[in-house]
């Protein structure tokens, strides 16, 4: 009776284990779960209030929206982030995580999936739950600049960049190589760009669609969660270009439209209005400030920890630090981290620290680390 796939999931889900640790500790400083801490900018809050009030009027009340998202928001996203694509290639959803799960139903259970190791655990778990059994590891290590040069043949490459947990953003060359490999094998890339807004380096691309051939092979998942603090509101989008075709010539765009219509009745109109506000001129300025604050926090944490560790990865294109250390080093100070192997076997020996907490959290973590180091010296 019970789905056989449930047995293959690790218990509990990685971030649930962090919550347990936080509850157990008397005075924890949580650098574990990558949730945001800054409040929403006023232009978004005002938009939410205005739209909510309209729902209480006869003329302003509205029911279900289009299941693929309001066309005005689809247009806004296309214009802001994907000038090379059209609005109907953008599908609005209530979370990247939701779509990571749903997208699996586009693919036959017989496919082989290549996954970064370590990586965000939802990819593999969602694949398992939809009956996939064949997986290949892409070792994602400091020694290979967090991306294997020899890419194995696979039907689907699930790639996160900037990468959770290591913070590495694929270079143009790495990404182009991936796209070329997928084109050569007539495979697809599921590209999770949830942290793209952290990228500042002009040599890197914020979306693979800037590169040659990407529209033929890439489905991009993206989200307002880390972009502007919508982890509680829930709003995301998935890009499915019309140039994507399965090996038998069927249109992926048509299938995805159909599949979404079955599983979804559309994202909350209120949340979508908030998304609109986020992409207004005022909202974009607020996004810029948010990114500055989190980047600054990541850099402060990295600087403060650098005397104690040889190498600290990440913190530049993502709000995560990836450090070769034992979680117990931090646990002794009441600092909660995530152990690297929670993201995959190649994460063993590392911990992930998040810089998305409040400034108090970051300062307190820094204070405890320096106090602990001084104590160890005396
Ligand atoms: N993708 C990655 C790589 C993440 O790290 C997260 C959340 O931490 C998500 C997706 C989930 O995003 P959302 O809040 O839009 O569901």
Could you characterize the architecture of this molecule?
With 378 residues, the chain is α/β, with parallel strands linked by helices. The chain folds into 2 domains: 120 residues, Alpha-Beta Complex (Aspartate Aminotransferase, domain 1), CATH 3.90.1150; 236 residues, Aspartate Aminotransferase, domain 2 (3-Layer(aba) Sandwich), CATH 3.40.640.10. It is built from 12 helices and 13 strands. It has a 7-stranded mixed beta sheet with strand order 2-8-7-6-5-3-4, sandwiched between helices. Strands 9-10-13-12 form a 4-stranded antiparallel beta sheet. Helix 2 runs antiparallel to helix 9 and helix 4 packs parallel to helix 5. It starts with 13 loop residues before the first helix and ends with a helix. The mean pLDDT is 95. The structure holds pyridoxal-5'-phosphate (PLP). Pyridoxal-5'-phosphate (PLP) binds next to helix 4.
SSE layout and pairing:
Elements: H1 14-24, E1 29-30, H2 42-55, H3 71-81, E2 90-93, H4 96-103, E3 112-117, H5 122-129, E4 134-139, E5 156-160, H6 172-185, E6 188-192, E7 218-223, H7 225-228, E8 236-239, H8 252-263, H9 269-278, H10 281-305, E9 312-314, E10 320-324, H11 327-331, E11 335-336, E12 338-339, E13 350-354, H12 359-377
Parallel strand pairs: 1-11, 3-4, 3-5, 5-6, 6-7
Antiparallel strand pairs: 2-8, 7-8, 9-10, 10-13, 12-13
Helix pairs in contact: 2-9, 4-5, 10-12
This protein binds pyridoxal-5'-phosphate.
Residues 34, 95-97, 120, 160, 164, 192, 194, 223, 225, 231, 236 line the site of pyridoxal-5'-phosphate (PLP).
